[in-house]
Amino acid sequence: MLSLLFGVLKTVRSSFKSRGQLTLENLALRQQLAMLRQSVKRPRVSHADRVFWVLFSKYVDGWRAMLHALHPDTVVRWHRKGFRRYWHWKSRRRHPGRPRIDAALRKLIRQMESANIGWGAPRIHGELRKLGIEVSQATVSKYMKHPRKPPSQTWRTFLANHANCLVAIDFFTVPTATFRILYVFIVLSHDRRQVVHFNVTEHPTAQWTAQQIVEVFPFDTAPGYLLRDRDCIYGEVVWRRIKSLGIEDVLTAPRSPWQNSFVERVIGSIRRDCLDHVIVLNEQHLRRILREYFSYYHTCRTHLSLNKDPPQPWAVESAQLGNIVALPRVGGLHHRYMRVAA
Questions:
Q1: Total domain count for the chain?
Q2: Are 224 and 168 in contact (CB under 8 A)?
Q3: Same domain assignment for residues 167 and 258
Q4: 280: nearest Cα among 297, 264, 293, 299
Q5: In terms of domains, do 163 and 261 share one?
Q6: Which phi and psi (to 5°) does residue 223 adopt?
Q7: Does the global pTM surpass 0.90?
Q8: Residue 120 falls within a domain, yes or no?
Q9: What letter does residue 325 receive in the DSSP assignment?
Q10: 120 and 252 part of one domain
Q11: CA dihedral of residues 154, 159, 162, 167 (deg, nearest 10)
Q12: Same domain, 164 and 190
């Protein structure tokens, strides 16, 4: 009886509604019935149904009272989810990240790394600059196979201010295949990091060292300062010969090789780039190896302190000169890369 009374009241109430409002209610009810027909246990909502109810809730007043098959909060959640997706699509990045470099250049970077012992990103970047390839050092490091140690720190201010008139001398030892110990004497010019003189002996003496200094600085070519350590090989004969040439002798503190950092770094480069990978037979063999290495060192090897240039600079080669070829140096331990016409 009550259900019949409620039905009559709804019918009477609907008679007072406008034609447009009744049309919208019928549309809402038909849509819900269509949803219910397509399901077995619960309504299955399609994308078209979701779009319909989102638009219906936006433009029809009192839509919550017309909704029976779904909860109104579900429609609100669909609306918000669609809003988020729209603005995610609207604000997407067309081309995320930096553009990748050419595959041939990535291959060249890895070839340089694998073919040259001890080459890191700064060395490879210097070679690429000389080949006319403009790419950042960070990009070179990114496409290398293995991470490398960061470049060394800058030199001391005193050495930088006196680089054009300062040279350094030092000894280092090299064992031979017959277990003899050879002593290598080098003289380094700080201006362009050039090894202006070297010699090899098995029995170094103060007289022999003094003679080497005279040979490397004939006439008026002597520098203003000469930096050395306190090795006992530099006896009275040596410092007298230095003084006679008008050179100011600068001694480092005891057990402080970092105060003669330029020549120590060069000796380390000689070992890492060359001597750690060969077996020395005798003095003549060592002289020939060092002569070939210093030729590569002065004309090909790029230096951080020289703005990625060798001690004897060479011009940047443009891409129009031709293809890139590798020329083996120091018995194939290192290579020089240059462009040649096809």
A1: 3
A2: no
A3: yes
A4: 293
A5: yes
A6: -80, 175
A7: no
A8: yes
A9: E
A10: no
A11: -120
A12: yes
Q: What residues form DSSP beta bridges with 186?
A: 170, 198
Which tens digit of pLDDT belongs to each residue from 97-134? 666 788 889 899 999 988 887 888 999 999 999 999 98
Question: Parallel, antiparallel, or unpaired: how do β-strands 225-228 and 166-175 relate?
Answer: parallel
The CA distances from residue 272 to 140, 171, 181, 265, in Å, are 22, 16, 18, 10
The reported pLDDT for the residue numbered 272 is 94
* Domain presence at residue 96: no
Same-domain status, 112 and 165: no
CB-CB contact of 190 with 181 (8 Å): no
Is the domain of 183 the same as that of 275?
A: yes
Question: Quick one: 276 and 184 in the same domain?
Answer: yes
Helices marked H in 131-260: 137-142, 157-161, 206-216, 236-244
d(CA 300, CA 130): 10
| Containing structural domain, residue 273 | 157-306
Q: Distance from CA of residue 54 to its chain's centroid?
A: 51
26: in domain: yes
Q: How many CB atoms lie within 10 A of CB 43?
A: 15
Q: Measured between alpha carbons, how far is 138 from 125 in angstroms, rounded to an integer? A: 9
In a domain, 13, yes or no: no
- The tokens for 266 are 């060069």
Which stretches within the chain are classed as H helix? 2-15, 19-37, 47-59, 63-66, 72-90, 103-115, 121-130, 137-142, 157-161, 206-216, 236-244, 261-273, 283-299
How far is the first Cα of the chain from the last one, in angstroms, to the nearest whole number? 103
